[in-house]
Amino acid sequence: MRVILFTSLLLITCLSQVQAQNYIPPSPDALGMAKLASTGVNLYTGNSHVNLPITQLSGRELTASVSLSYNASGHKVQEESGSVGLGWSLNAGGTITRMVRGLPDELPDGYCGVNNRGEMANATTLSSTFRDNVAYGIWDGEPDIFFFNFMGRSGKFFLDAAGIVYTVPYQDIVIKPAICRSGRDSWEIIDENGISYFFGSSASHRETSTYKKVFPAGSPSTNFVSSWHLSRVESPNKTDYLDFSYTSSTVSFMNYYYTKVEGAGNCAPNVGTIKNESTLVTVATKYPYQITSPSGSIAFQWSSERIDFPGALRLESVILQNSSYSQISKTRFEYSYFYDPTCTKGDSECKRLRLDKVYDLSPDPIATFTYNLETNLPSKDSPNIDHWGYYNSNSVDTWLPSSFHYDLILNEENHSFSGASRQPSFPKGMANILTKIESRGGGYKLFTYEPHDAIQYPNTYIGIGGLRIKYIEYNDGINQSIVKSYHYLKKDNITTSGQVFYVPIYYAYRIAFGGTFKRFSHSLTSTFDLNGSHIGYSRVIEKIDGQGSNVHTFSNYEDSSPATIDIFGPTWGVADSYSWERGNVKKQETYNSLNRLVSRVTNNYNFTLPVKRSMKGVSTSSYSYDCNPNGGSRFSRYDIISRPFVVSSQILEQFDPLDTLKVIRIVNDFEYDPTTYQLTKTAKYNQAKPTEKFITKNKFVSSPDYYSILSNGLDCEQEQNNCYDNCNSIADPFEKSECQLGCNNGYYTCIDSQPVYSTPMESSILELKRRHQISIPIETTTIYQNGSNSKVLDANIMLLKTIPSTVPKVFLAEIWSLKEGVQESNYDYSVVNSNREFIYDYTKFSKKVTYDAYDNSTGRLLQTTSSDGVVTNYTWTPDRLNELSTSISTLGLTTRTTNYVHKSHVGPTSVIDANGTTIKYEYDVFNRLSKVKDENNHIMKQYRYHYQNETPGFRITSIKESNPGDNVIYYATDVAASAGGNPQLVWDMGDGRVVDNNSTQVSHAYAAPGTYTVKLAGLNPEYGPVTRTQQITVYPVVSGSICADGPIQLDLCGGEDTYFDHCPGNQNTYPSSPVTFTFNVTGGCPSSYTYAWKYKKVQDAYWFYSPETSNQYTLYDVLNEGTYIIECVVTDGCGKTYTGSYNIIRFKSNPQCGSGGVGIEN
């Protein structure tokens, strides 16, 4: 039987395939990152853009930012909330995560495992043994989908049978895998800037997942790494870094999946029973704990108070700190839960975490969120879902959807099955969606949604689940509103421009043997494109009230390569994906308030560039015949293609609003490096004068003109590509895969084996190529071309130098500029000649600036010399001081020095100019400039900030339960005011005591039990008094008693002198039964009670301890004569303990009756 591995956790929106296809996702938080990698938030999908910046840590070269993003496409029924609430994703650091399809790739029978199943999937002919083993989940036929999302960059890739990375679409980045014959256990990605990103460097940076089938009991489990989190980022020179650490928790969730065998002809109808093939997935989830750099850190504080998702954490606050760990800023979060009051299946099934407010140090929230609570999501195990997993109006209590088979030969419906409705419902799909964001000061954004409408390519209309944005109202808080409306229509302004990816199919069948079927609870076909979307709009009109409109046109299914299907027989298949060709902006037009065309931007794309790499996946399903549930398998084979695409040209048009025939058209033609696809040439011209052009050329480190820097005259990447071309001519898939693996290894050997150059420019170019820092432009030129006449107007050449060390450091050495314009025919572009020397015509250039010296450890510039001989020196204080000092000395006839002192991550605190004059800068608690003072501390400028209904910031934090006589410490935290200074604090402890010494910390004990309200008043003349309150309940000290249910005095010989005790509500009078003890607590702090049980014979020294931690304990194994004491120690939420005890007796009325009697034997 085929093993089905899928989940509903954000799955359908976030990832490209459907639940039924052997797919296992990572944790909700990692999957939220995958969502951002796979689904762009744009008008093409009808999804509104919601992003909330939280904080940013800026270093010398690297920056880490933290933000929240919301996906407004609708919530899935089986979707668990991430750590910042349902629909929200925390963007902090990065991750490589994957959706397992079939088996994890690296397992022996995985796609790139040692048993070569991936090579079999790429064979010319698929054997029946291979197809059946894939169908029944024994072998793997599909590569996992990997998603990366880090530092503002995202994408997806696959690993082929040899473990070689295929980015989709192609990106010129280096990805070193952590699995599949790589010899590594962590990932490294190197971008075009040479920045290295390391993922999963240790176990604390990896999420591991375990999945097992629920039935039959005792099914084996499979373990694998599902996500590798960002561990470290290093600048190309290794002079700056970011380190990431994580905390963890363990969560579990279900992948619901059901099948049923149906028959006709030789099989009686509905002979089968519904089979539960669901899987339980357990994930060791990672959450960011700290991001550290030489300039400071970002700390994340977490809470385990999650009643909706046991084991999961929620984000409490984010703190930005300087290098001395002093707080710069703090952002905290407030939550509650979405809940359907008709749901009766418990908190973990019925509730979902809800983000309500976001605060900084002010008591007034930065943002307040409102959601649709008129419709709430049902329990997470509800079968009331549409084709895409959104909530619908299904009323049939089954996971199997209704379906029918249409016989193409007889042209009639010949098989129909009843079941659940999977039709979408807009009112249900609106459940718990975000509808409003209110900002501090009164402004807001109001969101109005509508259902999708679309056609299934090319022309079949079907109902579509999920939401798209209809209106967004922007209000500035002073009654000024702008409303934007969105219309998803073709040029006739009548027909929808939406197109859906693929039609769901819920059965596999075989015509022979009377036509037999296997039904599935989830679609066998992909209902989501590889770009993560199930729908795309070709044309969207954005109307702005009273201001005009923008019309956006996107590439869509009618523009892109067809989604072809290679299928063995009828029913279903998996399409070859050309997802990167869809959703690109083709055209954007702007109309004024009179609906007259003002401007238009047209982008033309080249989607036909050479395919870099391709591989095949095999998706299968078992079918049945003659009532045999394991009758055989269907399969579909599809291509996964790694191919680049570029914008080949762009046309900018400006129209006369009064006469649109009067237009200026500016054309930009683009050319790219054939290997790296970097933009190397832009030709800009007025279409009315096409022979007159302004051309910009960029020559990067990767330019073919510098290939001779390598010993064989070829670029290492070009060598790799040539190697792949040779491999493609090998017919045998096994040999071909091994050949490609050799190409991959050969690339790194090529780079590492190059000679060391003594001259700085040659060694620098080689070092940049070695570390893939290919975005550095060595030469830039600006050319004016008129017909055959071309003149170089301007040119710049950057000369580099390398400082040898364990990690060679490449720095900018000199910038040379063209002295005067020259005919291009007389201009010699820079090259590396056959002697591997970098040459350019320096006689035509003049030196503009020399970068004389750098700090080798930090990479900071120390000295420059300008073209007129002026030398400037820079002196920096060590990074890890609280403040940074800089002095600049200009050496000419005189020395002039300016000193700067900076507050890390805030701004300058003082400037002493060359005349010795000092200016000081002060900041408020929100790090906004508040005062500018002279050297005598006289205020020169003062800034006051105030927003509508502002109040001073402070709040009370303390424990919320206690016992009489125990000291409770109360803190005034986040004390802040944007104007008028911090408030004066007065405490009222709620029992008559008042503390008015402006203390931010008070210790107090309450004499008697009761509930007390503590008040903290903040007095400020600009605001008046503001009071915060918090309640504390003082409980009596914990105590209690133990009752027993069962034989407390028992004759082991079976005599009648047996006595029973009973707890309230119980009546156990069976001598042979065990005794159940219950601890009844009185008093104590009720937030938690834990119990520790033990027993022994009264005269014995040693106790027997029970693992039971609840208030009930059943004693089975008292077999011998004696008096036994049972004790229970209860610990309450305040940490106080109480010990209760109970004695039971076992005796023999006849010493000769034997050892067993009626007692319970071991």
From TrEMBL:
It holds the Pfam family PKD_4. It comes from the Bacteria. The lineage of its organism: Bacteria, Pseudomonadati, Bacteroidota, Cytophagia, Cytophagales. CDD domains: PKD. Keywords: Signal. Residues 1-20 form the signal peptide. InterPro entries: Ig-like_fold (IPR013783), PKD_dom (IPR000601), PKD_dom_sf (IPR035986), RHS_repeat (IPR031325). This is PKD domain-containing protein. Residues 987-1041 form the PKD domain.
